[in-house]
Design brief:
about 150 residues; 6 helices; globular; 3-stranded antiparallel β-sheet; Four Helix Bundle (Hemerythrin (Met), subunit A)
Length: about 150
């Protein structure tokens, strides 16, 4: 799939994510590509993660959910920050204005398949992204002030 085909498919992926979330949540507030719905996305991903851990959904279902919800998460970030989708080796990535790239699809796949619960949540992924953006925007002097250097004497 090329970038043009992917962009044409975004509404279908979002519809798939929203309808899946509706079935899971029993009609709670609907998901949408707005960061204000990030907590609801966390809940849906946690539910799917629990199904995966119990062996109730297979890897194909997990990957398909990762794509739909990853596109939704990517759109949340893009609409808030004005970034864009790019393709890298046929994988859609979110690219920031300064060329940094995020992979919400693969991140959600890692969260859903994580048996050790160390991959976090979609909101944690977003918060980490925001922290890195703030760090990269700092001057060298500001970075120096917040960085702790540890030296070891042998």
């Amino acid at each position: 799939m090329d970038l043009k085909e992917f962009k044409e498919s975004i509404p279908a992926y979002i519809d798939q994510a929203v309808s899946t979330a509706d079935r899971i949540s029993g009609g709670k507030p609907k998901l949408s590509p707005s960061l204000e719905k990030l907590e609801e996305l966390d809940e849906v991903i946690e539910y799917l993660h629990n199904l995966q851990r119990k062996g109730l959904i297979n890897d194909t279902v997990v990957w398909n959910a990762s794509v739909a919800f990853g596109v939704l998460l990517g759109e949340m970030i893009i609409r808030k920050h004005g970034f864009r989708w790019v393709m890298d080796d046929q994988m859609p990535l979110v690219e920031t204005d300064d060329g940094n790239r995020l992979s919400p699809i693969t991140k959600l796949y890692k969260i859903l398949t994580d048996d050790d619960d160390c991959e976090g949540t979609p909101s944690g992924f977003y918060e980490g992204f925001k922290a890195l953006e703030q760090y990269y925007a700092m001057s060298d002097e500001e970075k120096e002030k917040i960085t702790t250097y540890v030296s070891s004497e042998d």
